[in-house]
Amino acid sequence: MDDLEIVRTKRGSECSFFCPALGMEMKLLAQGEISDDYIRKCISYLNNLSGAMKADICRYAKAFCIWLSGEYEKAKNGQSNYSPYLVGDAFLQVSEETPEQDILRCLELNTLCIYEPEDENIITFLLWNPDVWNDEHGLTVSIRNGKILYVGECDYAPYWVKGYFSPCKDETKNFVNRSERSFPMNTNSYESPFCTRYASREMQYLFSADKKFTTWRRLWVALARAEHELGLNVTAEQVAELEAHITDIDYEAAAKRERECRHDVMSHVYAYGLVCPNAKGIIHLGATSCYVGDNTDIIIMRDALRLVRKKLISVLRNLAKFAEEWKAQPCLAYTHCQPAQLTTVGKRATLWMNELLLDLEALDFELGRMKLLGSKGTTGTQASFMELFNGDGAKIREMERKIAVEMGFAPDAVVPVSGQTYSRKVDAQVLNVLSGIAQSAMKFANDMRLLQSFKEMEEPFESGQIGSSAMAYKRNPMRCERITALARYLITDTLNPAFTAGTQWFERTLDDSANKRIAVAEGFLAADAILNIMMNVTSGMVVYPAVIRQRVMAELPFMATENVIMDAAARGGDRQELHEHIRVHSMAAGAEVKQKGLKNDLCERIVNDPIFGVTADELNARLDPANYTGRSVQQVEEFLAECVNPVLADSESADEVELTV
Fold first, then answer.
1. Is 336 a catalytic residue?
2. Per-residue confidence at 248, pLDDT binned at 50, 70, 90?
3. H/E element holding 143?
4. Exposed, middle or buried, 468 (CB in 10 Å: 0-12/13-18/19+)?
5. Are strands 12-19 and 7-9 parallel, antiparallel or unpaired?
6. Choosing from 83, 289, 468, 581, which is the catalytic residue?
7. What is the pLDDT of residue 476?
8. CA-based Rg of the chain, rounded to a whole angstrom?
9. C-alpha to C-alpha distance for 137 and 118, rounded to whole angstroms
10. Which of 110, 410, 487, 638 would suit a FRET pair with 35, their CA atoms being 20 to 30 Å apart?
11. Are 406 and 224 in contact (CB under 8 A)?
12. How far is residue 505 from each of residues 379, 496, 511, measured CA to CA in Å?
């Protein structure tokens, strides 16, 4: 960026630059006396956009400020293809419509986006409708991970009209205050709740059309480049032309062509050829549909597993902090959901973590062995490539290695043999990993739901949250209930790829396609949603030590009886006779509690029975809960040090996510 040419104009500063994160040339316009360092900071921010931020921009601002070029009408009519503009420290205007109509109209027009580098998680759009000019009204919309966080009215004209920007100070004009509703809303057809309520924008992007079809084009570029380098009649200029047009996909042209030819891959070959006229004759050379379809599926699953891994690490990090904090807090431990002995709150958290570590091991195993299909041809024999390369099998293998490296895999990460597709067992194995995460999450969520019923612990509960429409006092564990619901869906979803793998005939059949594109995508979206909620819950679990102690002390006298027997026997008592007295007193004390609703008076009965020879003070000293938790504290410390912390130290966590609650 040191060689950036920053031009000062009447409107402020402007410069053009390439944004790798978006893969496109962009123009930055800044208002007034803004330093070169600030502009460079803004550009650096853009060049390092996260996947979620990139998805927001791609969704909401694909055409940015094209009206400034004077080519608005041409672009609107599809006659012009201008690079997006990004504008800082300014806002654009909208009409005097309702706020939601303003937002919908402006997002539909994809008018303009600005950014706030001070907050790396938020993209801010300042909206203006070019069809309706009004100098006195505008809207600012802040978005994080695809969710509307804030909508405020701007009561100043654009900076090129009046010179500066300011949001409205009148709170009554803030139409949406931290709303978590996505815009635009679709109200007349079905939309998956994974998109509207549950899954993150980043995971949704991985299974989007943009991700899929740009990956197809990247694969076509990799194929053409390898064929060029290995001596086929593919020129460097053709490869460069293909590479220059990876992102400008004309979906309408592809859809129109598919209605004619009934083939999705060939329709996109056609659309790619429209913008690459010199290279259209070599697109997809020697390949079959599964070259782009299957390799893309593997790439998307790899990227999705990486995102799942980040979120799994985030949950483990939260639970590790929680376990350390509460490692010495005694609480009841249960077998058959009946009080059995004591454990600690932190020790119980290690049980949740241990299952998640097993899931992490399984995830890393699958991630580590993922392989591309490569270029295997119609039935896996590579016959078409043998024709192209005049029978030179070594070049075909080298071609696959080159493609693998370009797509981010090891040179040998290509399946050795296949039919037309990679084995559908891969999908089944990957979904099994996600199912394991769902199982662990369900176990955690069910434990939390029970603990919340006991009033020992609670999931986060927001200040304005409503627990029940009828019973205003209630604090329902809705987050953990949602984890359980989504986990049930994901666990059953694993049957889809299992049946698909088992019903593939010979070298391939097409009964996998429709099922696969739903089952795999929604499996990942469900896992993402589950982990989003777990990240939220584990970062804010509430513990009530007083309630926990009260419940412990109600049961501890029963648990302490073995120690009472041993002490009395050590003083010369008959162990069998002591046991019988304890049994009788325990049954009587239990009857007081269960039948009469009275307190547990077992301690008083033992003190009043001379056979035990123990005073009330001596017995109370025996009833310190910390004496009955075994090695819980040491187990927590050892588990964190030996099993968890090494994983956390070597792993990246995911960003926090906003939940629709």
1. yes
2. confident
3. strand 138-144
4. exposed
5. antiparallel
6. 468
7. 85
8. 32
9. 26
10. 110
11. no
12. 12, 16, 10
Q: Please answer whether residues 601 and 558 qualify as being in contact, where contact means their C-beta atoms are separated by less than 8 angstroms.
A: no
The span from the CA of 424 to the CA of 415, in Å, is 12
**628 pLDDT above the threshold of 70:** yes
CA nearest 52: which of 150, 106, 122? 122
Helical axes 289-325 vs 264-275, angle rounded to 10°: 100
Q: What DSSP letter does each residue of 273-326 carry, written as one string?
A: HHH-TTTGGGTTTT--HHHHHHHHHHHHHHHHHHHHHHHHHHHHHHHHHHHHHT
Q: Beta strand pairing status for 24-31 and 85-87? A: parallel
Instruction: Report helix angle 495-502 to 513-538, nearest 10.
Output: 150
CA dist., res. 271 & res. 267, Å (int): 6
Per-residue model confidence (pLDDT) at position 98:
38
Cα 161 from chain centroid (whole Å): 42
CA–CA dist 23, 516 (Å, integer): 29
The catalytic position among 189, 336, 463, 469 is: 336
Tell me, yes or no, if the pTM score tops 0.70. yes
Encode pLDDT of 255-293 as tens digits.
999 999 989 999 999 999 999 999 999 999 999 999 999
Contact 278, 55 (CB under 8 A): no
- Measured over the CA atoms of residue 21, residue 22, residue 25 and residue 28, the dihedral's sign is negative
Q: At what angle do helices 289-325 and 209-229 cross, to 10 degrees?
A: 120
The residue behind tokens 């600005």 is 114
What tokens appear for 56 in the block? 């927001």
Provide the 3-class DSSP secondary structure of residue 167: strand
Residue 418 a catalytic site member: no
Q: Residues 372, 407: contact at Cβ < 8 Å?
A: yes
pLDDT bracket for residue 47 (50, 70, 90): low
Residue partners of 7: CB distance under 8 A and separation at least 6: 13, 14, 15
Question: What pLDDT is attached to residue 102?
Answer: 38
The phi and psi torsions of 488 (rounded to 5 degrees) equal -60, -40
